[in-house]
Request: fold
Amino acid sequence: MISLPLTARNIVLLCAGSLLACPLFVMAAPAVPSILLSTTSGPPTSVILVSGTRFATNVTVDIYFDTQDMAVAVTDGNGSFSHIPIQTMKTAQPGEHWVSAVERNDQKSAQKPFLVETDWTQSRYDAANSGLNLHENVLSRKSVRNLTLKWSDSNGTIDSIAAVSDGVVYLASQDSHLYALRASTGQVLWKYLDPAGSIASSPAVGGGVVYFGGFDGLHALDINTGQVLWQGPLQSVYGVTLNGDVVFFNSTDGYVHAVDAKTGSELWNYNSGASNLYSALAVADGVVYVASANLLALDATSGAFLWNYAIGNTGDIWCPPTVSLGVVYVGSTDKNFYAIDATSHSLRWSFATAGAITIASAIANHVVYVSSQDGNLYALDAASGSLLWKRASTSSSGTSAPALANGVLYVTQGQHNILALDADTGATLWQFSGAYYPSSPSVADGVLYVGDEGNFYAFSLTTGNSHHALTVRPDPSALRPDLQLRKKPR
Reply:
């Protein structure tokens, strides 16, 4: 009898003449591990919950963000682990990064990409109107000196503040269109013509929808196609602010409105007593703050009146409030800037200028930045109101609403100038003088965006077409575990 080694090929040969007598052998494919991320994009410091399946049973798995070991899990009897938290680094720059899960002993692994973004999703960055991009980490006091024009686009007069989300820039033009542009190149992805012929607010983006106000009400468009999802109520809409699942706005009927962001159905409205409300409002800690003749505070859920504080406003154009750490900051046409305690409704301090204050402020690191029509930009201590520095503008009307990011204050002033200033001193770090009556700026993903009367500009540190830097996908076998990390529950 011939003895053959028991290989897959010889099993087939032995069974060839006697199929009925030979058992059926099935060669099962080895299990391939996989991981699932709770979110696939977000800013630096995002928390990601990582789950894994089809690893070996009861083994240690290291979870990496790029090449840094962030957490350790132990698989269960099915080779799985669930919801292990890791946090992206503060220094993780915009672009594609990688989450890797690697068995410590067997080196079986799985990987998924994670996109780091530092979006600017509405006119003053957030619902509290801080004007501060907390996560910007490309442009800095040192690097901003190297800003160059990346691209420009001619789509009429751009006086709105651009919103930036997921690599797309949304901006309103006086040619009555809302534009969606590819952030890397300025290519028009789609445009929407407002039937009423005018767009009255800067856009706000969230949940796959872009919102803006016009003379014919609030519009909600699909971010991918520009198709109308819903529209209403029918009056001129100003100062659109998105906070979670609610859109808040002011209007020329003197009412403050809150609508469901998904359906457009009105949740409540409040009669401010003013004939017009043109400025943006602020939302923080469950309260809506509105600048009218007085500073008005409303319950964000019900619209119920909470309190008001007299700030001496006259006319129609009023400074939007800014909220930070329980204090409401607001300028007035009476030439004063006020800091009002949100709990006690009492005055913390006020600062007198020589001109009306109608432009939104910005706040960061306990400093509030205020533009007055006396022609000065002021930096004030947020706790005391004491003057830290001031800078004279080339324009008697002062500067635009400031944008803050990573220690740099971005403003436009006068007929031509776009400036990047040191937020600590007011010193000029960079300047562009080719604009024509530029709009207020926004900053996202290492790019400065500004519109003017005829153009829209994107400035970055490079002139290439890459919107995001690409991180090299790490080789799992080259990743080195941190043996000091404690094992997380399964």
